[in-house]
Write a structure and sequence with these properties.
heterodimer, A: 170 residues, mainly alpha, 0% strand, B: 168 residues, 5 helices
C-alpha cells in the first residue's frame, strides 16, 4: 500500500475533532500536493456538515408525505377538470349528432306503399315549415273528410271541383 | 388555474360553432328534401289509390311523371330566373333597359306557352293508358295540390331564402 493511499484512508477514518497527524504524515502532506488538497477538501466538507441542523427522520418523513399528498391532490383536481371538459365536449357533439339524426315525426308516420313519386316542382323553394304544413294537410284530409286532392269529376257540384275548374279560367 | 380551464373549454368548443351553423343549414336542406320526397310519395300513393290504377298503369304513370316532372322543373327554374331578372329591371328608382325588358317579357310569355304545351303533351301521354275519368281525376288532384302548395307559401316562411311568385 502506498503512502498516499494509506493517508487517504486515514483522512476518512479520522474523527472530526482529531486533526493531528504524526510527524511522518505531516512530512508527506507537505511534500505531496495531491494528499494535501484531498485533506483540505475533507476538512471543508466536515465544516459544511457541522453547520447543518440535526437530521430528524420523523419530521422529514412527515414533510415528504405532506408534499406528496399535496401533489396528488393537485393532480386529481386537474384530471377531474379534464374529464369534465371532455364529457361536456362529448355531450355537445352527441347532442348535435343526435338532434341531426332524429327522424321527423312526420317522416315516421304512414309508410308509403307505392314506392314511387309524382314530381311536384311547385314544392321547390318551400322551407321545411311550409312543407310540414302541406304534409300535415295531406294527413288531415282523409281523417276530416276534407278533399285536398280527392275531388272526382263524379263529384260535380261540390265546391272543390268548381274551385279547380274556375282556376283554369283565363 | 381557472384561466387554463377556460382556455381548454375555448379550444374544445371553438371549432364547434361554425360546424353547428353549417350543420343547421345542411340539416334544414336535408329535412326539406325528406319532406318533399315524402309529399311526392304520398301524393303518388293517393293517386294510385283514388284512380284505382293497376300495376301496368302505375308503372307507366311513374315513367310519364318522371319525364314530364323533370321538364316542368326545368321550365319552372327558367321562369324563376327570368322573373328575377325582370324584377331587377323594374326596380323603383332604377332606369330599366328597354331592350332587356322586352326580351325578358317575351321570354316569359314564350315560357308560359312552352309550359302549356308541355302540359298538353303530358296529358296526351296519360291518355294512352288512363281512362278519361282517371285522367280527369288526376288533373283535378294535381290542380288541387298545386293550389294547396301555393297556399302553403309563407306558412312558417320566415326562413325562406327566395320567395317564389310563380304565376305559371
Amino acid at each position: 500500500m502506498s503512502e498516499c493511499t494509506w493517508l487517504s484512508d486515514r483522512m476518512a477514518a479520522l474523527p472530526a475533532d482529531q486533526a493531528e497527524w504524526s510527524a511522518e504524515d505531516q512530512r508527506h502532506l507537505i511534500g505531496c500536493e495531491s494528499c494535501r488538497r484531498e485533506w483540505e477538501l475533507v476538512r471543508a466538507a466536515r465544516r459544511l456538515g457541522e453547520q447543518l441542523p440535526d437530521f430528524d427522520p420523523v419530521a422529514t418523513n412527515a414533510a415528504v408525505r405532506r408534499r406528496l399528498q399535496e401533489a396528488a391532490a393537485v393532480r386529481t383536481k386537474r384530471i377531474r377538470a379534464w374529464v369534465f371538459a371532455g364529457m361536456a365536449a362529448a355531450a355537445a357533439v352527441a347532442g348535435v349528432v343526435w338532434t341531426g339524426d332524429r327522424p321527423d315525426p312526420l317522416l315516421r308516420s304512414e309508410p308509403v306503399a307505392t314506392g314511387f313519386r309524382i314530381p311536384l316542382p311547385e314544392l321547390d323553394g318551400l322551407q321545411p315549415a311550409e312543407l310540414d304544413s302541406v304534409l300535415r294537410a295531406m294527413d288531415q284530409a282523409p281523417a276530416s273528410g276534407a278533399t285536398l286532392e280527392s275531388t272526382a269529376p263524379a263529384d260535380t257540384g261540390n265546391g272543390d271541383l268548381d274551385f279547380v275548374l274556375e282556376s283554369w279560367e283565363g | 388555474m381557472r384561466f387554463r380551464y377556460l382556455l381548454a373549454f375555448s379550444v374544445l368548443f371553438a371549432p364547434l360553432s361554425p360546424l353547428a351553423a353549417q350543420g343547421q343549414d345542411s340539416e334544414r336542406d336535408r329535412r326539406a328534401d325528406s319532406l318533399r320526397d315524402r309529399i311526392e310519395e304520398r301524393f303518388a300513393a293517393r293517386v294510385q289509390e283514388q284512380l284505382g290504377l293497376n300495376n301496368d298503369q302505375a308503372a307507366r304513370l311513374r315513367a310519364t311523371s318522371e319525364t314530364f316532372g323533370k321538364r316542368r322543373r326545368e321550365l319552372r327554374e327558367r321562369a324563376q330566373q327570368l322573373r328575377e331578372a325582370l324584377r331587377q329591371q323594374l326596380q323603383p328608382g332604377v332606369a330599366a333597359n328597354p331592350d332587356s325588358v322586352t326580351k325578358l317579357t317575351d321570354a316569359l310569355v314564350d315560357l308560359k306557352l312552352t309550359s302549356a304545351q308541355a302540359a298538353r303533351d303530358e296529358m296526351r301521354e296519360y291518355a294512352k293508358y288512363l281512362t278519361p275519368v282517371q285522367r280527369a281525376r288526376l288533373l283535378v288532384m294535381r290542380e288541387r295540390m298545386y293550389h294547396h302548395v301555393k297556399g302553403a307559401h309563407g306558412h312558417g316562411g320566415r326562413e325562406r331564402r327566395h320567395r317564389d311568385r310563380s304565376w305559371m
